[in-house]
């Protein structure tokens, strides 16, 4: 099966820091792949390279087997890739509905729409529907998102990504700030969109969570893929061993 998204030999420097040293990665439609690795392994950098935020120095990215150039986040989104960034990208002064529709605002019908007037009631209605479908509970959807808790903000960012993605959703530590209940809801959303055929890439340092939600695991160490596992056959020791370099797996790249 052709992976929906494939990265081959991605190299990315930040000045003299070599964040990615020929990293490879792939994910297929309808699977959750956990991308794991120690702090500084290059996970967030890889996600940024695969969502148009950073431009790799070299390497190849393929979507459905065809080489693409992800030169901006807009290009990546147009190709069906949505991302929940570790350093959250929500607009704090806007309410959750406006954040959900950020960059994709619904305009009023007719002349007002042509003049750029937004259809806020319609966006609120659709946003409330999506939040409820995805199990995101907010006391109010018309307060600035900056006044919500960190976990609620993270839930809105997760909802926005799955609402708009058509092929791949990257989630960089989406549950890190969440309590038990919200965390389970996000994991349920991940399973649900996976079952609808989406490719989901989850970055997490929580190994029980990784083993419970993912179908496969890819391990990055020092900017390279060093191991891959099917989640069903992997143990905690396997994952930790690969991340720390205690175990080596031939031929991972
Ligand atoms: N904007 C940047 N400028 C300079 N160096 C950077 C930048 N972003 C990342 N790096 C460096 O690149 C390397 C990989 O960082 P990255 O954020 O991708 O790691 P990570 O695997 O996501 O780690 P964590 O689990 O802590 O989030 C690190 O050495 C980091 O210091
Ligand atoms: Mg990171």
TrEMBL record:
Signal peptide (residue range): none
Protein name, UniProt field: Simple sugar transport system ATP-binding protein
A Pfam family this chain is assigned to: ABC_tran
Lineage of producing organism: Bacteria, Bacillati, Actinomycetota, Actinomycetes, Pseudonocardiales
UniProt keywords, alphabetically: ATP-binding, Nucleotide-binding, Sugar transport, Transport
Keyword Transport in annotation: yes
Domain ABC transporter as annotated: residue spans: 5-247
Entries under SMART domains matching the protein: AAA
